[in-house]
Amino acid sequence: MAIEISDSKFRPMDDNTIIALLSGKGPDEALYEEADRIRREIYGDAVYLRGLIEISNYCRNNCYYCGIRKGNTKLDRYRLDKDTILACCRDGYALGFRTFVLQGGEDPYYGDEPYGSTDGDERLCDIVSEIHTRYPDCAVTLSMGERTRESYQRLFDAGARRYLLRHESASPDLYRTLHPAEMSLENRMRCLYDLKEIGYQVGAGLMVGAPGQTLDHLLYDIHFMQRLQPDMIGIGPYLRHSDTPFGRSSAQCAQGLHREQKLNLTLRLLAVLRILFPYALLPSTTALGTIDPEGRTLGLKAGANVIMPNLSPAEVRDQYAIYENKLSTGAESAQQVALLKQQVSDAGYQIVTDIGDVKCH
Ligand code: 5AD
Known about the structure:
- The protein has one domain (30-352): Aldolase class I (TIM Barrel, Alpha-Beta Barrel), CATH 3.20.20.
- Helix content is 41%, strand content 12%.
- It has helices spanning 15-23, 29-43, 82-95, 120-134, 149-158, 172-178, 185-198, 215-228, 245-248, 250-255, 259-276, 286-291, 295-301, 337-346, and strands spanning 46-49, 51-56, 99-104, 139-143, 162-164, 201-208, 232-237, 306-307, 350-352.
- Strand 2 (51-56), helix 3 and strand 3 (99-104) form a beta-alpha-beta unit.
- 5'-deoxyadenosine binds at residues 65-66, 166, 168, 207, 236, 238-239, 241, 287, 322-323.
């Protein structure tokens, strides 16, 4: 059956329409309904689960917004070893997870350069291939930052099939104000295009309401993603962390959006993305659940179709504090999947036990 999504009054969406939709105040039920209609035509009422395993909070980078930045000396650092990661997968598999996302800071221990007795790459490849062998019906997703093309290829050869690397901002000026000079948008883009060329399903994304971000920046991000054509797009509200340069700066706080504004803008952007990228996998993120108790459900209703509960060992969850008050218990915890199923079904969707690949573009 032909999908007639082009009949929509929202498609094609020109830049003025996008800006008008994003600048509206409060919720926009008509927009969310349209996004939901498109999502149902392609993905039905399915919500895909991803088990998120936060394997290390060491990071060589110093992003101004992020709580696990290298310069945060107040944070207790940890990394999970292979056995612990495999135990998370075992628990997750039993709970119905068919995707495991290994996420971490850019920790040299799991990095792409020699580190200690064994190469970081080798260590990570070994874990990926073990998961791949043990769970051939599951997808291994990586979210381990910027690496060389060779490293991405080795990890792909080891069995990883998806990679999440938010581009953070496609505008060079905003990118520079969010990151120190050692980091470059150019390298970020190089990584994303390398990943695509190698054959990964690729996730890009950004924080909504990041300090200094305007609607024009978001439009720029949309244009960039229209060129990249990512399979997944992760967006969530920016949330402050006091042990970061942005968290400490009162100027950054003063110019930022309020909680309610960030929530609504995130939901509006999610819906716009669903309309512009009908086939994309769009997570209703932890940050959305953190900014509002109903956030994750609202995200689903605005077009999101993926939820990534936390499968990390309970004792390290608080340490993966990219922002403050990050949720990791209740329905956010993989162990509480029954509660999550109930919430999702109350919202009118169904959690499915499925590998949850992107449908063809
Ligand atoms: N608030 C919201 N999201 C954040 N991230 C990092 N720091 C914050 C923050 N303070 C996001 C970034 C990163 C992802 C893993 O988490 O977009 O890519």
